[in-house]
Amino acid sequence: MSQMLEIRWHGRAGQGVVTAGELLGESTMHAGMYFQAFPEYGAERMGAPIKAYTRLSTEVIEIHSPILDPDMVVVVNPNLIGVVDITEGVKQDGTLIINTTHSPEALRKRLGFESGQVWCVDATSIAIEEFRRDIPSTLILGVVAKASELVDLDAVVETTRETLGGKLRPEIVEANVRAIQRAYEECSQG
Amino acid sequence: MVASQFMPLDGANAVSQAMRQINPDVVAAYPITPQTAVVQNFSQYVADGIVDTEFVPVESEHAAMSACVGASAAGARVMTATSANGLALMWEVLYIASGLRLPIVMTVVNRALSSPLNIHCDHSDSMGARDSGWLQFYAESGQEAYDNTIKSLRIAESKDLLLPVMSCQDGFITGHGVERVGLLPDEAVREFVGSYEPELSLLDTDNPITVGAWDFTDHYFEHKRQQTEVMNASMALIESVCQEYEQLSERPQPILDCYGMDDAEYAIIVLSSTAGTTRSLVREMRAEGKKVGVLKPRLFRPFPATQIVDCIKNCKAVAVMDRAISFGAHKGMGPLFTDITSALYVAGECDLPVVNYIYGLGGRDTTPPMIATVFEDLEKVAATGDRGDLVRYVGLRG
Fold first, then answer.
1. Domain final residue, candidates B193, B219, B249
2. Shortest Cα–Cα distance, A164 to chain B (Å)
3. Tell me, what CATH number does B153's domain have?
4. Which one of B47, B100, B116, B281 counts the least CB within 10 Å of its CB?
5. What crossing angle do the helices spanning B186-193 and B142-157 adopt, rounded to 10°?
6. Model-level pTM greater than 0.90?
């Protein structure tokens, strides 16, 4: 039986949203899965709201069009709530993962999302504490790993080490890894 | 068969990896969105000494194709890449490349032509070049773009063909979309493409030749006849290279990629990435008992006319989806549709209702629900016997 997980990301340009989707895909590829990671291309300017998509599947992915009814929505930037339609098309039993200081109960109320799962994590604080920059996308992969059985935390950590290891100083790479592990531990579901 | 190693690559990068493995003698190119990553990545391989290609960063696409023609005439193995307006600027030199029988391989990352200005995918660029004497492959995914690039080189350089090849993929959709792509080992690719030893070259000073000579009313016609004959007779050669590559890679390499076509009552014919989207819908509809199918030609030039007719002739109704308009053609139909209706007519299959759908111009999303409406229309056409509008639009507002 083939399994597919379709994820839509909401963030602002420059927050590492596209990179996070690609890292996620790559981590599942190492476990033998197929993936697609692609942003929605608009005018390119820092800080603009952007959407990106990730498909993960145990089988070859044939569909090549944007995700209309995601299984999971990840909100990287808390100030997008109320600005863009976060829950558009999301499946009834879908999962929301939100970077916020608020509780899942408060977010459910605010978004009018009563079914499925809501996971909250204060990713901005973790990012600032661990690497002093508001680039919270990658560390949210820790929450994605907790919320989906298709994604393995160790694989995410390993892929992050490999991919960022080629570009960043070792202490920054380890700060990213710590941030992912903290997000995994500190997130709350409700 | 050799095992592929999987990498996370966008379609453009998949092509630059193929080019790295091929290690051509000369690449002359000019960057244009969405092809840029192909050239950018490859120029990095040159700078890092991973390939020993002579990379010529030219001042325009006209110069790019001109440099490719010069290098190829000199006996080099030559590759390049472009998109949209860049391809348009190459126009006169495209015909020179094919007329001189130069086996240049060019990736086209499909993009809409201006005006209005648009950087997103449609097929108006390469479809406009369909009569330029180049072979054309179209890829559904980054994987197919990689595979087609390697096959294109072997086909182009075949002694019995010697024609340039365009290997096309959808801009942004696969060009910038990152997917799992299997790469053959470097040695396997190098062995598959072999070395290129031209029988005639400008640098062979012991056997001097003239290239690009005056060819007036005396012989031009005969030369053009030879050029069209070699293309007309090339299908067996193309199929044999595809089969050889299929055995090597263990990935199917059909000229026509068919799904559900054995007993399909309603079928869609479509190129490139939208064929995958259509197939995912067809799988769902088949599970519900609908007799539907999808046919994706991976090769558009030369046009596999008889194979397509054989594949669709027992359907009740067929839709051809075109990501380009052939402006001024009857009702503004698309280029794939004109070729398919022509193929049906000459095969004597004149009763099959076929309709044309223009879709996805300028990168307009084409989703499964939109494609589902095409199948609904086909059922209506068959049920009522009324074909209705010959040319329709899908995903168009208002």
1. B249
2. 14
3. 3.40.50.970
4. B116
5. 30
6. yes
